[in-house]
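subagent[fold] <- orchestrator: predict structure for attached chain, return tokens only, no commentary.
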Amino acid sequence: MKNIRNFSIIAHIDHGKSTLADRLIQARGLISERDFREQILDDMDIERERGITIKSQTLALPYTGEDGENYTINLIDTPGHVDFSYEVSRALASCEGVLLLVDASQGVEAQTIVNLYLAMEHELEIIPVINKIDLPSADIEHVKKQIDNELGLDPEGALLCSAKTGEGIEEIFEAVIERIPPPKGDPSAPLRALIFDAYYDPYRGAIPALRVFDGKIKAGDSVKFMSNDSVHKIDEVGIFRLEKTPTKSLEAGEVGYISAGIKKLGDTRIGDTLTSDTNPASAPLEGFRESKPVVFSSIYPISTDEYQDLREAMEKYELNDASVVYQPDSSAALGQGFRCGFLGLLHLEIFQQRLEREYDQGIIMTVPSVLYRFTLNSGEKIIVDNPQYYPDPSEIAYAEEPYIKASLLFPEKYTGAVMTLCLSRRGVNMQTYYPDPARVELRIEMPLAEVIYDFYDTLKSITQGYGSFDYEIDDYRKSDLVKLDILVNGEGVDALSMIVFRDKAREWGVKICNSLKEEIPRHQFRIAIQGAIGGKIISRSTVDPYRKDVTAKLYGGDVTRKRKLLEKQKRGKKKMKTIGSVQIPQNAFSSILKTDLTG
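subagent[fold] -> orchestrator:
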């Protein structure tokens, strides 16, 4: 084990994590120049377009140190976004050290600090690395001061590199060997391995990625997952190069994969402990918990006869992303569909794009919501993730909604604008800190429902791209919540209803009615679009009808002839309104998602 090093790269979004991984791979000659492409570990189109890592990857890098020893360096890559922080924590639990990447031009950001705390919780060796030193705007001395003041790390121990040009890469390898300790474990003890990721292969089933802490694992062994007691026989073990490479066995301290004909990715839960079926460990490794969705939305096929195709696509998607939770749902307006739970709004966007691109599914998504908690007069507590199940208002004793603890970092000159934004989203307990004279850290508590729409985009806009944001779920707090119904010609459209804070209900109702007015086509009769709380109408827009000029054929005579024709037309339109149905186009539902509800 003394020649093994397990490490991860952690960083704020866009600080060069994937580019640094590219240079590490090239430096070890794992891929030829001809076959190389940027972001080699990001194999999804969406990852490459957005420049973010969605699915973490693992890689075993061979390295010969200056001491002449041959080492195996396991790079356990991690996603960068807050929505996937649980996956990051499991990857860190499999390492002994991390490279904490800091952008030489942007300095320490909100998520840099959060990732530092995650690494400290796991008692990892932390090596600060200042990246992008080739940029004209790089201020290395200033960043070193931030590393000292904000992170509490030794700035003199910080490595300098440029992942773009390859400068400083060899120094990083040597620092990993010298400063990150080798793994500990007992090869003769009963098997205990931590599953930190899983992949789905259409021919071989689910393939867990794991770090062996104790014991040994080889092909032919019978193993058990300790969270659900399912038993499987291993047909292959191996390590990760750019392709999966089979080996004879995996021993304590090593990182690799197993193939055991596991049918569902959901059976291999991230954070679970794998042990031997014949000689099981007495206790699992610490830290396993189910990933809990925080944002909910319903999806429906654009055409009702495509429901079966959507069901099959959802089943295939679940094999690649076990953190999506879904169950059948139905709507009077949109037919049959699914109610889905996501780890955050980015997770929801990725899900929508992958479903449309990889599985060729045209879908409609309802407005995202969060889990609300209602206590009834009888003392019963109910959890509501769908406005359709909003309880009778007369039976509600009080309502609660989830709050988050948010941390925002931004240049000092944007303080007023950021504070105004946070207060407009019902922020409370605001605290400001000054890590250095030019930057402000704002800590504030806000309702999750106020953040899931466009908060991050708005923050980036008002700080000209320099603001950074991170959050963690806090607790439930009492709130005055109501159900906002949208009525079209007096008929409620269940797919458009939502649970909102009472003081913002009228503002949201006006924006949704105006948005729908632009999307619903004109009919032969006037269409009323209304927002209502219970029986009280709080907003209204009207789609004017087409109107034929029935008096065009008149060329004189008494005015009563004209009035007679207009009265006849009026009676006809009134009759048409009672029997006519309003056609709501599919894009009317998606337009609500694009409406700036919280601005």
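orchestrator: received. Logging for downstream: The chain has five domains: 4-179, 192-276, 295-365, 372-479, 483-594. Residues 295-365 form a domain with the Alpha-Beta Plaits fold (CATH 3.30.70.870).
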